[in-house]
Amino acid sequence: MSGSGIGHDQWKTRFGFMLAAMGSAVGLGNIWRFSYVAGESGGATFLLIYLFFVLIIGIPLLLTEFSIGKAGQMDAVGSFKRLAPNTKWHLTGLMGVIGGILILSFYSVVSGWTLFYLYQYVTGAYWTEPDGGFGAAFEAWTSNPVAPLFWQALFLGLTILIVMRGIKKGIEKANNVLMPALAILLIFMAAYGLTLDGASEGLVFLFTPDWSMLAEPSVYFMALGQAFFSLSIGICGMLTYSSYLKAKDRLPAATVGIGLMDTVFALIAGVMIFTAVFSYGVEPDSGPPLVFIILPSIFEGMPAGHIVGIVFFVLLTMAAFSSALSLLELPVAYVHRTLGLTRKAATLTMGSIIFVLGITASLGFGVWSHIQINGNNILDMMDNITANVILPLGGLLMAIFVGWYLNREQAVKNSEIESPILQKVWYNIVRFLVPVVMVVILFISLFDI
Fold it and tell me: pLDDT by residue (tens digit) across 192-234?
């Protein structure tokens, strides 16, 4: 393994890897995106279809990405070069690196907002509704050309400090604290939501299927997309994380555990959000403004709402950090190997580039708000490029790589599945079903149907 460049740095335990991988998946999107997508798509009906797709598409594709990283024992680009020398397959990894940079550049902007809201709740500024309401306050603050950049820089700076320390001492150690704390806070918030008047309506919406929604094609598309995106597949972040595994660390059990726990997190987040939303008469399909405008309004009317607000934004901040660590590690691992930089230098370099790119996304809400394509500002454009093109294309290429480029014996060996029946099922899913599904996701995303 000495020639792997970054292979000397490994997870201390397989459980540490699982927590970090869960942290990568359980980000801001899995807490609020799952809720509003479920709200738009029929609640319980969406949930059933989503669970089905997680099992037959999400987990097999996650194992596919893990198998490439563990077998390659290098960064996203290096792993493909090692497994497919003298080919162009490494461009899949390079696309993932570029995607990770783009995602973290706008993700750090939104995460900076989360940090700011946490500060506002801790200091008491948002215990009562600001003049003009939470909506006007949010719009005024995000359009400020300077203030959001401070919080974006603070968020990225803390992320850089953790990644700089490496896998064992930095990312693993941080996730060993972040993920259990996140789980406790999420359960607390969901339990509190269950005590609210009208909470039962939220539970009915989330867990009682409307079978007529099964006739809506959009529900299947939304559930399929959420199952894919919620597991953080296709960007090569999971590939990079799995490259730090020891030979004795088995992939199948870890993959299933990560997939199931990620889904449990999303369900508990749904309980937390929908009990509050229905208790205060808010539409369940309120969309992205839910977190920064609608929920603060709800918190204001709650008993001890200021405490609930603090806990909620602590929870969101932890989720943001856990995902940001994997997004930054992705390009850092690549630059660390290819340019021969120290981990510290590689982390500072990539963090700085990501911050500069993020400035453009932040200014897109203010002085550069006139820069739009089809009504999308700069942040939305970055989001669309990564979510609608890079992620599904990455998933498609990984499935083709494992299902068609590698021979069956090598692919199955890398998956570490022991049961002959499960080997056959997994391989056929990756070889035939996943590529079709990825093409469908790409087609729907690109043509917005």
Answer: 999 998 899 999 988 998 888 888 888 888 888 888 878 999 9
Q: Which two tokens stand for residue 214?
A: 């099964």
The alpha carbon of 414 is separated from its chain's Cα centroid by a whole number of angstroms, namely 25
Q: How many structural domains are present in the chain?
A: 1
Eight-class DSSP state of 195: T
Interatomic CA distance for residues 36 and 206, integer angstroms: 11
Maximum mean pLDDT: which of 265-269, 275-279, 355-359:
355-359
Rounded CA-CA distance 117/119 in Å is 5
Owning domain of residue 333: 2-447
The CA distances from residue 137 to 256, 266, 317, in Å, are: 43, 29, 20
Q: What is the CATH number of the domain that holds 192?
A: 1.10.4160
Residue 198, sorted as left (phi over 0), alpha (psi -120 to 50) or beta, turns out to be left
Are 232 and 322 a contacting pair, CB within 8 Å? Answer: no
Q: Which two tokens stand for residue 149?
A: 């950049």
pLDDT tens digit string along 316-346? 999 999 999 999 999 999 999 999 999 999 9
Helices 147-164 + 90-122 axis angle, to 10: 120
Q: Is the dihedral of CA 361, 365, 370, 376 positive or negative?
A: positive
The structure tokens 């006139």 sit at 370
